[in-house]
Structures are given as C-alpha cells and as structure tokens.
Amino acid sequence: MLFDSSIRKELARSFGATLVVLVTVVMTMMLIRTLGQAARGSVNPSDVMLVMGFTVLGQLSTILTLSLFVATVSTLSRMYRDSEMVIWFASGRGLLSLLKPLLRFAWPVMVVVAALSLAIWPWANRQVQELRAQYEQRSDIDRVAPGEFQESANGSRVFFIDRATSDAGEASNVFIATNEHNRETVTSARSARLEVRNNERLVLLSDGQRLENTLDKPSIKVSDFEEYGTRIGSASSRSSDDAAVKTQDTLDLIKEPTPVNMAELGWRLGLALAALNFVVLGLAIAVVNPRAGRSGSMLFALFAFITYYNLMTVGQSWVAVGRLDVGPFMLMLHGGTLAFGVALLAWRHNHWSLRMLLAGRRRP
Q1: Which of 59, 197, 290, 364 has the fewest Cβ atoms within 10 Å of its own Cβ atom?
Q2: Residue 180, Cα to own-chain centre: how many angstroms?
C-alpha cells in the first residue's frame, strides 16, 4: 500500500543518515580514546585501528537502537509538521495503524541488534582484551624502541637503548632510571640481554655503573659492576579464568547463573528489548507542538533514551551485587516501559483526556 511504502521509504532515508552520523561520531570518540590508551602504554600503537574497530563493533547495537529511535521520531514529527498526518487521519487511518509499517521496517534492525548484543558484543570485547593482554605481557624492555626514551607500564622506570643487536634479546648502551620505595637509581651499561630463570624474566646488564640515591638521605651511592641482573616481570602466561564477564559467551553466562553473570545477561537481553520499546515510544511521543518548536519532541526523545540506558546501567549494578534479581528487574524496566508506551499510544489514538476520564467516573 501507498501508506506503508511511503512511511518505510522515509524511515529508511532518515535511519541511514542518522546511522552514518552516529557511526562517524562514535568512531572519532573511540579513536581519540584509543590513542590516549596507546600513549599511556595500555595498547600497542600498531593495534590502534583494530582496537577502535572492535570497540565500535561492540557499541554498534546501541548505535543502531538510537538511530532507529531518532529516525522514528524525526520522520513522524516531520509528517505532523507538514500536515501529512492530518491527511492520513482524515482518510480513516488512526495512530495505531502506523505501528504495523514501523514494525515491518524495524524488525530486521531488531534482529541485528539482538545478534550484536548476544554474540558480537562478547566476541568484540574478547578481541580487544586479547590485544591488550598480548601487549601488556611484553616486558618493559620489549617495548623499548632504539633511540627513544620509554616509560614502563607502571610508570616507575624509564628505559633507553642506543641500538638493538641482531639478537632480539640483546641491546647495547642501555640506560635505566627507576623511582621505587623512596629510592632513585640510575643504571647504565654497555650491553644487556634477557633471560628467563625460575619463571622470572631478568635483564642482565654487563660492564656498567649504578647510582643510588635515597630521598630522605643526602647521599649518593656509586657502584661499578661487570654483570648486574634485575627482575622485570614474570614469564608470559595466560589463563582463561582471567577473562572478564563481558567477554564470556551468552551460553556460558546461562550455564553459570551467578549474580555478575546474570547482570551481564540482563544487559545483553535489555539491548535487544530496548529496540522494540523505542519503536513504540517513538510513535507515542512523536508529535509537534508549534509553541514548543520543531525540536521539542526530539529533545524529549534523546532525554528518554539517556534515561532508559542509565536505568539499565543502574539495574545491572544492582543485579551484580545481589540487590535485585534479573527477572524482576527486566520486568519492571523493559516490561514497564513497553506498558507505558502502549498506554500512551492508546491514549493518543483514542484521543482520551483527563477530563473525559473524570466525566466517565462521575456517571451513575
């Protein structure tokens, strides 16, 4: 029908434009944050684009939901503003008749959002964590580039090497400055090599000098050495038990119904249910009041979106600490939001008013 096709075409145009804008904004924000993490030594600089891509992919379910909500509100508000809704209403179409074309347009997006939240979200988080873990498991010496000063992961050491030899585990003209336990040390050596002893990573310095200064004592201790060893961390090891709850598959969360797992499961299911709720809310609140300006309904929609997701975050923390079960929480938030949207939609469809309801109660 012309009614359904015209609405779906305009929804598609608005949804596509909104999605492009939101993805661009989120990618820019994620790029800035990832570059900051790389500058602090949390992410390998060569993996910045990968980390950013996986992060944006994990947030794509929220982006799609917001795009769908904004497209619904903006399209219907434009139809109200240009008096198209008056024409449809005059032809016998009520407000509830708009729900069918909206859902026919939105159901593929809802399926994609559900797949992203239940499957892609943990996979993307797992990829980001693996990239960070691989970089963090490298020793401080491994991170040093020849000719550059490099700070250690915890900020307590500064390294410098003049050049690396053909052997990846050796370097020449090494400088190490440390500040630990109220003590400053400066160590220089002609060469250094890496060894693993008793599951500990050691750097062995050869033919060098060490200056040690205790901050509460005005004295400097100078010592020469032929060989000096210092521990720089444990050997690389990784356990699957260290995986965060956000990286666990949805089936694993169901198999182990701990409060933390149920909180994460409620969050993922909530992302899928939110898309449906926002379609109903978008239809219910999309109305243009000439006195409120053109952006009144859009501002209210953005406020509703932020409030909804904040409530999801608060509820997730409550479920994680055991203050609330995931079932009652989802029923109150998502079920309550859907009931509110349907009630508001029925109110506007039937043109109810508080005066009509009060008059109906007063009848004998």
Answers
A1: 364
A2: 35
Helix (H, G, I), strand (E, B) or coil at 38: helix
Single out the residue of 39, 42, 51 nearest to residue 127, CA to CA: 51
Nearest-angstrom CA–CA distance, 106 and 277: 11
d(CA 141, CA 161): 9
What angle, rounded to 10 degrees, do the helices at 259-285 and 99-115 form?
Answer: 160
Do 284 and 339 touch, CB atoms closer than 8 A?
no
Taking only the tens place, the pLDDT of each residue in 279-326 is 888 888 876 555 555 566 778 888 888 999 999 999 999 998 888 888
Do the beta carbons of residue 231 and residue 246 sit within 8 Å?
A: no
Quick one: pLDDT at residue 237? 42
Dihedral sign for Cα atoms in the order 91, 96, 100, 103:
positive
Q: CA 142, CA 290: separation in Å to the nearest integer?
A: 64
| CA–CA separation, 218 and 237 (whole Å) | 42
CB 141 within 8 A of CB 204: no
